[in-house]
Design goal:
mainly alpha, Arc Repressor Mutant, subunit A, RNA polymerase sigma-70 factor (Sigma-E family), sigma factor activity, DNA binding, sigma factor
């Protein structure tokens, strides 16, 4: 802390704070977009990303700081899965008429094409959705996807191929 006379002390950022702040500035929006594609809800996606950065801050320094973005992506995916699991359990206890619908704000925010893709994406299995988002939204290679999700590279490749075929068929059905 640096004191400026009688004024309140000004915190001096340490290496951890600076490193995580830089990652936050550079990757927050992309990680929120990734989470939105999985959980389909912006506020929940922002919470997931915030929790991922908090966890990164707590664990800093990592064994290999160059893998911080990979750590964040993995944490965002894992926490997004947790959100979906909690929702699934909560839906068991809500009568169908009470289930929350898409907000007017998010509906207005999405263009018609994006909404169609998002609806189709929601209907594919979770693992397939994760692979498709990582491959075609983040443009990760099949090897990177395999490492991130803990599956084989050929599994990532075949899941992406099957998922793209399913998504294409569902989009054609909607039109």
């Amino acid at each position: 802390m640096v004191s400026l006379g009688r004024a309140q002390p000004v915190p001096v950022p340490d290496d951890r704070t600076a490193a995580v702040a830089r990652l936050y500035r550079e990757h927050w929006l992309g990680l929120v977009r990734l989470a939105v594609l999985i959980v389909d809800d912006r506020p929940s996606a922002e919470d997931v990303v915030q929790e991922a950065f908090t966890e990164l801050y707590r664990r800093w320094p990592l064994k290999d700081d160059t893998k911080a973005l990979q750590y964040l992506r993995s944490t965002v995916l894992n926490r997004s899965r947790s959100v979906l699991r909690r929702r699934r359990v909560a839906r068991l206890y809500l009568p169908p008429a009470v289930r929350p619908d898409e907000s007017a704000e998010s509906a207005a925010e999405l263009s018609e094409n994006r909404r169609e893709v998002q609806l189709a994406l929601r209907s594919v299995p979770l693992r397939t959705r994760e692979v498709l988002v990582l491959r075609y939204y983040l443009d990760l290679s099949h090897a990177e996807i395999a490492r991130l999700l803990g599956i084989s590279e050929s599994g990532a490749r075949s899941t992406a191929s099957r998922g793209l075929a399913i998504l294409t068929r569902k989009l054609e059905e909607q039109r």
